[in-house]
């Protein structure tokens, strides 16, 4: 699976979880987080290492069902993803910007739920 497809799958998963949060199992969310940690593994760069650390943090928060902290983590991930995509002017950059916006929206929705 290429990066653009993986990003779109993640966005669809986030939308699905927001629309039908009671039907979205935690295990599925944890599997998505694990997939992203593995996808970023070995790519290098401090920004990606920071994303991996935050994804590991998010995984722990999801397991504990700490919603306020999950919202903060999603906000941070969205902002960092948007920053990484800022200078990318290709299809992957567009997908990453969309993912950043989606993560920030998910954080906002989680704060009010």
Q: How would you describe this protein?
A:
With 113 residues, the protein is mainly alpha-helical. The protein has one domain. The chain contains five helices and no strands. The chain has helices at 3-19, 26-40, 46-64, 67-85, 91-112. Helix 3 packs antiparallel against helix 4 and helix 4 packs antiparallel against helix 5. The longest helix is centred in the C-terminal third of the chain and has 22 residues, at 91-112. The protein is globular. The N and C termini lie far apart (33 Å). The mean pLDDT is 82. It comes from Hymenobacter glacieicola. This is Signal transduction histidine kinase subgroup 3 dimerisation and phosphoacceptor domain-containing protein.
Main features:
113 residues; mainly alpha; 5 helices; globular
What order do the helices and strands come in, and which of them pair?
Blueprint: H1 3-19, H2 26-40, H3 46-64, H4 67-85, H5 91-112
Protein name: Signal transduction histidine kinase subgroup 3 dimerisation and phosphoacceptor domain-containing protein
Organism: Hymenobacter glacieicola
């Amino acid at each position: 699976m290429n990066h653009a497809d993986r990003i779109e799958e993640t966005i669809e998963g986030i939308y699905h979880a927001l629309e039908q949060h009671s039907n979205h199992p935690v295990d599925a969310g944890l599997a998505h987080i694990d997939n992203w940690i593995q996808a970023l593994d070995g790519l290098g760069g401090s920004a990606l290492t920071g994303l991996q650390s935050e994804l590991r943090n998010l995984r722990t928060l999801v397991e504990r069902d700490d919603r306020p902290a999950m919202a903060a983590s999603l906000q941070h991930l969205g902002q960092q993803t948007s920053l990484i995509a800022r200078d990318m002017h290709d299809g992957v950059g567009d997908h990453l910007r969309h993912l950043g916006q989606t993560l920030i929206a998910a954080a906002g929705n989680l704060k009010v739920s």
